[in-house]
Design goal:
The chain has one domain: 7-stranded beta/alpha barrel (Alpha-Beta Barrel), CATH 3.20.110.10. Strand 6, helix 15 and strand 7 form a beta-alpha-beta unit. The protein has 23 helices and 12 strands. The chain has 477 residues and is α/β, with parallel strands linked by helices. Strands 1, 3, 5, 10 and 11 form a 5-stranded parallel β-sheet that branches. Strands 6-7-9-8-12 form a 5-stranded mixed β-sheet. Strands 2-4 form a two-stranded parallel ribbon. Helix 2 packs parallel to helix 12. The longest helix is centred in the last third of the chain and has 20 residues.
Length: 477
């Protein structure tokens, strides 16, 4: 019987925010997304017995979640919560975090709406803001199941030290349940799991920077003569090791950082026994203008999925401004159009960020996702698959693949003056020290993505972290 096979891959990732010099987490994004997305995303799925999805968990993210869950993380925000009074710099940091909150998150907490409308915050407001800010990040699970969170939301302000202590205790209890939830659903075969080279580098650039010119022949490359090929290998080897230690099995599926693939990257994955990878549809069409993104391709034994950009981007960037019912109807309608157009069973790959989009949805996306999963259960012409189940599908040979990323080009990570300076600094230290864990950290895609683009406090922190990794690498720590 003809089916539409639907493969969801929710990508979960944050770079290493721990300063190697101080040991402090400079930014709290791992902590904050742990309060909602990292737990809620698999949790939503539990009541939909017929729906299967996949999660890509980067090793550097797993490492940080564990650090927080074990109570080892020194975090600037957490320390502010317990301080009797905040100094000017601490207030500025808290205010910056507050002002970066999307409107749906502010509107989800009455006390925060009040402070937003007030504008000029007084001393007492900062005492409450610490608690209210954390409450804004509490996802549906905590809001529905934690008596502490429910009580503090209802209280709305005038928080005492006992309230702050109780909230932190509840947070750490919650953090300890994240990775076990993935393990449970993975072992039940309700979800599939994949991973990424350890610190999320742009692997094609590490293997051969010249490959970026396939997408943009006039892109100006940095002046580097260091060789990063062994680092690319180590990033993959360390990822395999971390995944196996965490989940008890060797990973068979890799989402390449930023969907960045090249033929050299495919060969590297084959070398390590990877069985399936994925990228954006644009790489298929650049390589094969008549290619079909609704088929599973096979490169010398390595299966390759091509992401449906329209459907993936609709969830990421469009549906949050729609009524949830309308977004789900549109998504299912698009699937139906694909199903009816082809005389074979199409394979639709929907691959996107599993954390950040929900900041812009009402209820952190809970209603949208539950309606979506319910619709998938009700339409028997759709079958959701784990990545392991893709192995049973027919494949089409993939003889070659032009290098590229999920955006199409590499220009978000290399080519501008600021990004090239980062590569040149990295290469200089690489030539000097050869091999270092901190060089691997500095190869992460996020530092290059934001170089020259992220301004203000957050931009300063990203630059500080990148430079700290290089400095510690040079010192041999």
């Amino acid at each position: 019987m003809k089916k539409l096979y639907l493969i969801f891959l929710w990508h979960m990732h944050q770079p290493l925010y721990k300063n190697p010099k101080s040991g402090y987490y400079e930014l709290p994004w791992v902590l904050l997304h742990s309060l909602k997305d990292y737990f809620d995303m698999p949790y939503y799925l539990r009541k939909f017995k017929k729906v299967k999805v996949n999660f890509n968990l980067t090793p550097v993210l797993l490492e940080q979640i564990e650090d927080y869950a074990e109570g080892k993380a020194k975090d600037r925000l957490l320390e502010l919560v317990l301080k009797p009074r905040l100094n000017k710099k601490e207030k500025e940091f808290l205010r910056t975090l507050f002002e970066s909150l999307p409107e749906p998150m502010i509107n989800s907490v009455e006390g925060l709406k009040r402070l937003k409308e007030k504008g000029n915050l007084e001393e007492e407001d900062y005492k409450d803001l610490r608690v209210l800010y954390l409450l804004a990040w509490c996802g549906s699970y905590l809001r529905e199941n934690s008596e502490v969170v429910k009580r503090l939301l209802k209280k709305g302000g005038n928080y005492e030290k006992s309230d702050r202590v109780a909230l932190l205790e509840e947070i750490f209890k919650h953090l300890r349940g994240i990775i076990p939830l993935y393990k449970e659903l993975f072992e039940e075969k309700r979800i599939g799991l994949s991973t990424t080279p350890y610190y999320h580098p742009i692997t094609p650039i590490l293997l051969d920077a010249e490959d970026v010119k396939v997408s943009e022949p006039y892109l100006k490359l940095p002046n580097i003569d260091a060789v990063f090929e062994e680092d690319a290998r180590e990033q993959v080897a360390l990822a395999l090791e971390k995944f196996q230690k965490t989940f008890g099995v060797k990973p068979k599926h890799f989402w390449p950082s930023e969907g960045a693939l090249s033929e050299k990257t495919l060969k590297l994955f084959l070398e390590f026994g990877i069985e399936l990878t994925a990228t954006d549809e644009n790489l298929l069409f650049k390589s094969y203008p008549q290619g079909n993104k609704f088929k599973v391709y096979n490169y010398k034994g390595l299966k390759v999925l091509f992401r449906d950009r329209g459907l993936s981007d609709a969830i990421s960037f469009i549906y949050h401004s729609w009524k949830e019912e309308d977004g789900v109807k549109d998504f299912i309608k698009n699937l139906r159009n694909i199903y009816e157009y082809y005389d074979f069973s199409p394979v639709v790959s929907v691959i996107l960020d599993g954390e950040n989009p929900w900041d812009y949805y009402r209820e952190n996306g809970k209603r949208f996702l539950e309606l979506l999963y319910q619709s998938l259960e009700e339409n028997d012409w759709i079958e959701t698959l784990t990545l392991d189940e893709v192995s049973s599908l027919e494949t089409t040979p993939l003889e070659h693949l032009k290098a590229g990323t999920w955006t199409g080009s590499f220009s978000k990570w290399i080519g501008s003056d600021e990004k090239n300076q980062y590569w040149e600094k990295l290469a200089e230290v690489k030539k000097e020290v050869g091999k270092s864990k901190w060089l691997l950290v500095a190869e992460g895609s996020d530092w290059f993505w934001w170089a020259g683009e992220l301004k203000g406090v957050f931009g300063e922190v990203f630059e500080k972290l990148f430079n700290s990794f290089l400095e510690v690498a040079k010192d041999g720590a």
